[in-house]
Request: fold
Amino acid sequence: MTTYSQVVQYVITGITIGGIYALIALGFTIIYNTTGIINFAQGEFVMLGGMIAVSLATTGLPLLCAALLSVLLVTAVGLLFERLAIHPLKGASIITLIIITIGASIFLKGVAMLIWGKDAVRLPSFSGDKPFHILGATILPQHLWILGITLSVMLLLHLFFEYTILGKAMRASAANRLAATLVGINVRKMAMCSFALSAAIGAVAGIIISPVTFSSYDVGTMLGLKGFCAAIIGGLGSSPGAILGGFLLGILESLGAGFLSSSYKDATAFCILLTVLFLRPRGILGRP
Amino acid sequence: MFRLNKKLMWLFCLPVLLFVLISGCAKEKKVYKIGAIFAITGPASPLGTPERDTVKLLEDQINQAGGIDGHRLKVIIYDTAGDETKCRMAVKKLIYKDKVLAIIGPSRSGTTLAIIDEVQKAEIPLISCAASIKIVEPVKKWVFKTPQSDVLAVAKIIDYLKERNIDKIAIINVSNPYGISGKEQLDIQAPQAGIQVVAHEEFGQKDPDMTAQLTRIKGTDAQAVICWGTNPGPAIVARNMRQLGMQIPLIQSHGIANKKFIELAGEAAEGVVFPAGRLIVAEELPDSDPQKSLLLKYANDFQQKYGRSADTFGGHAWDALQLVVSALKKAGPDKAKIRDEIENTRNFIGTGGIFNFSPTEHNGLTKEAFVMVTIRDGNWRLLK
Amino acid sequence: MAKNLRKLPSGRWGIAIFILCLALFPLLTVNNPYYINVMVFVGINTIIVVGLNLLMGYAGQISLGHAAFYGIGAYCSGLLTAKYGCSPWLALPAAVALTASVAYLIGLPTLRLKGHYLAMATLGFGMVVYIVLRQLSWLTGDSSGLMGIPGISIGRFKLDTDLKYYFLVWTMAVGVLMLSRNIVNSRIGRALRAVEGSETAARTLGVDTARYKLQVFALSAAYAGLAGFLYAHFMGFIGPSTFGFKFSIELVTMVVVGGMASIWGSVLGAAFLTILPECLRVAEDYDIVIYGLLLMVVMIFMPKGLTRTTVDLLKSRWTASPVSQTNEE
Amino acid sequence: MAILEAVNLKKSFGGVVAVDNLSFSVETGQIKSIIGPNGAGKTTVYNLITGLLPPTSGLIRFNGQTITGLKTHTIASLGLARTFQNVRLFENMTVLENVMVGCHQRMGSGLFSAICRLPKFRREEKQTAAVALEKLALVGLADQSQRPAFSLPFAQQRTLEIARALAAEPRMILLDEPAAGLNSHETVQLGKLILKIRQMGLTVLLVEHDMELVMDISEEILVINYGKKIAEGKPAEIQDNQEVIKAYLGEDFKGR
Reply:
């Protein structure tokens, strides 16, 4: 295997994983923009998406139905979470809210453990496991699914924020909460929407990644952390930043594992993060 | 108002009555209390859960059969979450609050090592369910263990490699103590057998993808990949190898000896070879094998009670509890005597092998405790 | 005039009562080593949480990587004593100095960051330290952990039981509490609280905010190093998994649950979240569900933490009967 | 002698020029005011002087020393104190403690002596409290010293901010719209306080919208618009300056 095809392999791997990171980072960004909260339960949405889809699929439901239903259910969880735990706290400090999301993350993880047990489960691949070759690297069809769905979700999000009333309202309340209230936007409702939306995105990420990496009740923590990491690298609050950060983290991590040392793969990821922050304290595309 | 008070009175009286009743019954013979600490939650929970389930199963069976010489057996189980601090507190609680006679577990090597001092100080027998050789080497007076050490698993794998004339291997391991300890053992034993390790790779417990590491291995002239880890990582390794079109054999560790691996890896599990205790291939064993009947019974009982197949981790707990129980039968409720009895156990047939303890050997197994197993048609098959 | 300085004249009595309770605690528990053992961990956690609270509550800086300092302290002391035969009393200053200087070096670039960026940077630092502790087995002994860390003795007197260790840990914890109280009610403490109130205003009054942030960061790391020292010699064994991300988060949670910018809150937070999981053992598998739920409930109903909410309640009663506080001599 | 001099000061944010080639000086012991319409760049000038923002180009000299490029706290330690347009008290502290922070740089005790409560430290704490109380007495807040700062009425929050700045014993104080939000009685009191401060030998630079106050107490006025100087002179001169009237004061002021 030549170095060239190795590089191609690393990059392809990095792009698929990076896509997932990017989706999770987008989830962080949406909630952060409308509420200022870092939602530590974001990874748990990813986990729930995967786990619910798997259990629905095993009941014999077609894959697509299972996936859609799972996204809906996780969205409902996101809504419920906002209503019950975030909404009642008017004017609490951000750190308090963050601790609440940590509590929620522990809680959701515990519930998932009780429902699904501790073992990993797998969703069948969307279209077989036959690998094919590009430029000396091998890819699974599922990787293309991941990439395709990730990009479509990003596109849909873009369209949503640019062309729908709700999307515009969310953007407005992200840009200036006071001004948004003045023009009649219900900012608190926007917070609810943001939780629903990022729960849905998390669920999508969880579903598409499950055939490749499996799901288990505790898969969310690390994915959530990496997503947070990606969001910070790109610049917190910037959607293009989240996407850039996600792909960058995925690719660099994969190259690092390939060329430096796989023992220090996660350390590589966090060193990248620290370097970026020291050079650009507000992330690559962050507002100064 | 009066009625309410009456109800309340009953509410208070009921527990008292129950207590009197229970203690009245128990007065016939004292309950034997044994402590158990497993990683029931946390990253090591795939180990701790079957261990706990096995212990509960055995507890029921023993009590239904009349207990130990008429004494009811009570196993108090605590969760360590795989965390040293929590484990330490659980051990303290077992020793000083619950006042148990012996302790089995914990599931992880790290947690075991963290409580050895405590156990030695409190002078209470401990039978660990963790793999690391460091637990019993050097020998500690009060500490035993039932799982086959990774040293033995590595030895078995080296034998297998030599038979196949493989002399260049690549190692990929999970970056937790289990995986790193396996890697270290391979690094020690492989060169002694004239086998060269051409690549070392590592992956995180929850890593979603290992193609980067495997691509690197693919670039070397390794003749086999040895993967050391517990689910789900090894399954991803198997799938990624298939994806990359790697044809060289994949040898896994005994860490994948549960059905989950086959389920997760799917077709990629076919042809994977690994060393394991005889439990998972019990049906294929010759009838002359002394362990066979016992293994079949355990496997069936477990399947019946929990609707899942038993695995070797549960087996470690089976062995540990049975060792304590048999010692208890002979020694009675005396910690020091129980310890002596465990140390004097010879030819004890367990799920993990045939145990022979001695003052210098607190694991009691040889590499014969392992057999090589392969996966064919989604099932375990005994090699040769 | 001196009266004006002491905001809480009852503070001294508070500490006295607290010490008395601690001293009497072993009697209440009929000397059961299990309870003593739990209290030892409460003491160790208190030390770290007080430091972290100085950083979070007073200097307004968050750290999601404090477990790393705890780990550095524990490993430093553990390695020096177990591998190189150093006396624990020599290892203690080494561990504290090492953690403080690591914090100082890390703090130089990191503390320029703000808010969530700082949180993520400290988190990243914590992860890197954790991975290094796990991977450098030639240094840290073994991947599963470092064994054979000796116990502590004072002269000939060996602290070989939990009870004796309990007194050592709480002596140090009370010491740390008093020191921290001293800091809070001093020039530096006021400067720090000023930074939390309005960093800009503090700067225009000549407060070198960057310097104090760094100093407190190093100080809180030193506390964590001290706690690591106590932990290592208590356990006799340390493994990397103790010092991971999870514990960092737990520490922050202890600070917030106890109450930010409250020294006593730190004690309460550490005690609450150390004892709670022990109480939840009866719930078996449901324990983490209940834990998560309780955490949320506490924060929803007491968003300012346990102490602040209680104090506010008491205050609202007091203010019902106004007492003039002006006193000039 | 000029205590403060700004030479060709310029600050731009991206494409927007907030302060444009501004030069002015303040004489020692003077009360000087900077006026101008909203968004004229007054607060930016303050931020440049106190080092909260770095100037794009230009120089600032304080007491003969160039202070551009110095850190905010260093500039403060040279004897320059300020207040803020939107009051920035340390709300989590008492009134007295707020003022004691003002004394910060005159105290020397560090972390170590605070931890150990050395006698020197205790002595210093006592002295500081005395100084702080004195400053509170000066602004008339001595009887409020133990209240939490946030519980003060707004007008007193403003005066507390001044007391806090005075506690640093500066040579010069920059006041940023100290009369904003005050009623007419409170404004008169404020004017008296500013004069009292000047009598203590301090130089005062004032940014203010309340023209009556400005005209009453200023010895010199600088008018800026769009970051540029459009006039400078005695109050009477400014009142008659056509440029100023046109750009800022408007017709109705002339009528007064």
Q: What stands out?
A: The domain at 32-148+291-366 of chain B is CATH 3.40.50.2300 (Rossmann fold). Confidence is low (pLDDT under 50) at residues 1-9 of chain B.
